[in-house]
What we know:
357 residues; alpha/beta; Rossmann fold; 8-stranded mixed beta sheet; two-stranded parallel ribbon; 12 strands; 28% helix
Amino acid sequence: MPRMETEQRTVTANGITQGVRVAGPPDGTPVLLIHGNCSSALFWEPLVRRLPPTLRVIAPDLRGYGASEAAPVDATRGLRDFSDDVAALLDDPTLFGAADARPVVVGHSLGGGVAMRLLVDHPHRVGALLLAAPVSPYGFGGTRDLAGTPTTPDFAGTGAGTANPDFVARLAAGDRGSDAQTSPRAVLRAAYVADPASLSEDEELLLDSLLSTATGDDNYPGTATSSPNWPGMAPGERGVLNALAPTWFRLADELVAVADKPPVTWVRGDADVIVSDTSLFDLAYLGSLGVVPGWPGEADCPPQPMVGQTRAVLERYAEAGGAYHEVVLPGCGHSPHLERPAEFVAELLALTTVPAS
């Protein structure tokens, strides 16, 4: 079988310039790939190589990543700036062969949240949903239970203030080294996958993807505000990490209420350290380990049950007339499509054969 190869394009949609990687015939079964935070469409390249050439693959760079314009992210809209950009691509006849295309939408991490937002706002444009290690429908951090109850009124300990400033500085500088624990390469190896060997010959390409992230107050990580609650900061109104914060991104009820419910497959690794009930990027969990001083304790600030929240919301989705399928990959980290490609491709192809509702 010939290998799928992507073609880099530049389009203008939703008022901004977007880089889009395209593969496969225009009349092929459409698949839309939405990457996660601190990455780009390049992060999908190892997956695209494994896909059959009968698919039409569209992989955009979200604003502020890859070849797309570093347009400001209005965090008060949650992830809607991103999902609106992606939705605008669905109407581009040069990308999708049919004017009413309903692709299988695949979202990784932050991209999973973008995919959920796309489904809520444009349910008639989503044929099926594959969520790969997605952010919780209640946002990232700052919630205590399966219902997404806030730990503090201002969701302290979430948003841009949680970013490691040395990592941000190295990201902005294009650091390709590996000596520092906070270097982008070290973070790629330690957090994006459970076993760095799974990056293999694609490590440089994946690092390119990570380093394409636009940094600053309007992009990654965004702005922070002070808080009287531990650990002293709360989300601001600009930038990516604030758009992920539960202050602005909470769509559980909207997701459950979607009238047109396509099937959902949720793929995750049981060794994920980013989206996890014991996430190493959740300040409440780090506080419980003594890494962040002053933690007020389990009663006041428990770690976010990210996985449990997603499962609870998807169970509600199913009870309301939808269907979901959870796939747990043992020993897999945050990037199932890189670490367990055969299983991931199988789940994706299964969704491409589901008739549109």
